[in-house]
Design goal:
By secondary structure, the chain is an all-alpha fold. The chain contains 8 helices and no strands. The protein has one domain. InterPro entries: Prepilin_IV_endopep_pep.
């Protein structure tokens, strides 16, 4: 029998599986945040369940276990930001749920990517909400009338971009001129 994944490195394969599993949840998060300005706890739990159940099968056990520390650190930072900077609790919880998927050594890449997605998502949201035809297509979307911004959109974009880079290392070579395999 022909194995379509033959020759793929284990980490690349793992992130392709993570990407496929997380994509529908991320679509739900983005839609929900845009339409209601809330990220459902069930979506946060779904992302956590994906890492909890698929992670130990797809990743080496020790790095998988240590990555849960990412969850704790990001959740604590998120709670502080919620209290002092009015970052949404759903945003903080989603960021924490996504954090274990990210290798700590990739933080210097992920933070600027998040900043870019945050600026891009904010600009796109503000532009689209000013277009009457778009608002007619999405009546009742809470984010169109609120001063605050549905940051879940930028979090989802960053998370899916990271999963895609890990799943398809050739994108890294194309975008950054890098070569080699993804690391855990």
């Amino acid at each position: 029998m022909l194995n379509p994944f033959e020759g793929l490195e284990a980490v690349t394969f793992a992130y392709r599986v993570f990407l496929v599993l997380c994509l529908p949840v991320c679509a739900w998060v983005a839609w929900s945040d845009l339409s209601t300005m809330k990220i459902p706890n069930k979506a946060v739990l779904a992302v956590m369940a994906i890492f909890a159940l698929a992670g130990p099968v797809l990743l080496p056990l020790e790095p998988w276990a240590w990555r849960w520390l990412n969850f704790v650190v990001v959740l604590l930072i998120g709670f502080v930001l919620n209290a002092v900077a009015h970052v949404g609790a759903g945003d903080a919880k989603f960021a924490a749920a996504a954090a274990p998927f990210i290798a700590p050594t990739h933080l210097p890449i992920v933070l600027p990517v998040f900043a870019a997605f945050l600026l891009g998502a904010f600009a796109a949201h503000r532009l689209l909400r000013a277009i009457p035809a778009v608002r007619r297509l999405t009546p009742g979307w809470v984010s169109w009338t609120r001063k605050d911004f549905p940051m879940g959109l930028a979090l989802v974009g960053t998370f899916l971009f990271y999963l895609s880079l890990m799943a398809f290392p050739s994108l890294v070579a194309f975008l950054f001129g890098a070569t080699g395999a993804a690391t855990t």
